[in-house]
Amino acid sequence: MASLSVPPTLPRASPAVVGAARWRRPGVLVRSRPAAAALGGGDGGMEQHHGDGPRSPVKEKPVVSNIGKSTNILWHNCPIGQSDRQQLLGQKGCVVWITGLSGSGKSTLACALSRELHYRGHLTYVLDGDNLRHGLNRDLSFKAEDRAENIRRVGEVAKLFADAGIICIASLISPYRRDRDACRALLPDSKFIEVFMDFPLKICEARDPKGLYKLARTGKIKGFTGIDDPYEPPENGEIVIKMIDGECPSPKAMAKQVLCYLEENGYLQA
User: Fold this and answer.
1) Which of 149, 184, 205, 212 is in Cβ range 3.0-4.6 Å of 192 for a Cys bridge?
2) In the 8-state DSSP scheme, what is residue 114?
3) Cα–Cα distance between 238 and 167 in angstroms, integer?
C-alpha cells in the first residue's frame, strides 16, 4: 500500500488578514482608482462593479464649453423640468415686460397686475428697475453701455423666473429697442409679452413722481430718457396701453387689459 504524502506546512495568516477575509462581502468586485483620480475627484475613467450583474460602461468625458469670459463650464440638466413646475403651479411661466417713459405708470401697472393675479391664485414676481439698482445692478450707471448691461441682467433673471413657472413682471424704462429684443430672444415660444405704456411725454412730465424731469430740464441730470436721451417705442409689442377719450385708464383697468391677454393665450393654466 502506497504511503500518503504529507503536504508541506503552510504559513499561518496574520490575524489582520484573517479578519479582513472574514468580513469581505462575497460577489463584490471593487476596482481601485488611480491615485490621481482619488486625490482630484471624479472616477478617473474607471468603473465600480457590484454583484454578478453586467458591468456599467466607462463614463465618457463630459463636454465643457467656453462662453464669454467663462471657461470650462458644463450645463447640468435636472430631471424636474419647466413643464413639471408649471403643472405644480397651474400656470405657464412667462415674462410680462412693461416699458415706457419715466412717469408712464409702469410700476403702478406691475403692482396692480401682480395683486390681481395673486388674488386669483397665481404666483408672480415683480422685477422693478429702481429696486434692482439697489442690489443686482447697483454697479451700473445710466450711460448707454451700462443701460444695455442693466437690461441684459434683468432679462436673464426674468428668464429664470419664467423657467421656474412663475409669471415674472419686469418694469423698466428699457429705452432701446435692441435691448428689449435681446431679452425677447431669450424666451422662445412667445413667452415674452411686451407691454408698451404709450403715454405722451407731457403727461409723464406733469406727473413727475420722482422730480426727475425737473432735474433733467435744469441740466442737473444728463442722459435722461425723453429729454436728452431717446426712447424707442416697440414696433410689434403684444399690448399697448394708452389714453382713452383723453383720460388715463385706472391701474385696475390697465391690469385687466393684461389679464385678458394672459387668459386668452393660455398663460393662466398649465
Assistant:
1) 184
2) H
3) 16
Residue 162 has pLDDT above 90, yes or no: yes
Cβ-Cβ contacts under 8 Å for 234 (sequence gap 6 or more): 99, 177, 180, 194, 196
Residues 91-105: tens digit of each pLDDT? 999 999 999 999 999
**Which residues are identified as catalytic?**
174
CA distances from residue 251 to 112, 195, 230 in whole angstroms, order as listed: 6, 14, 26
Q: Give pTM, 2 decimals.
A: 0.76
Mean pLDDT computed over 53-74: 79
Nearest residue to 169 (alpha-carbon basis) of 121, 239, 225, 107: 107
Between CA 239 and CA 264 the distance in angstroms is 13
User: Are the CB atoms for 90 and 96 separated by under 8 Å?
Assistant: no
Mean pLDDT of 228-242: 96
What does the CA dihedral 205, 211, 216, 219 come to, rounded to 10 degrees? Answer: 140
Residue 229: the pLDDT is 95
Strand pairing report for 49-50 and 124-128: unpaired
| 3-state class (DSSP) for residue 66 | strand
> DSSP letters of 142-194?
SSHHHHHHHHHHHHHHHHHHHHTT-EEEEE-----HHHHHHHHHHS-TT-EEE
Judge whether residue 56 has pLDDT over 70: no
pLDDT computed for residue 75 by the predictor: 86
Q: Are 179 and 147 in contact (CB under 8 A)?
A: yes
Q: What is residue 88's DSSP assignment? A: H
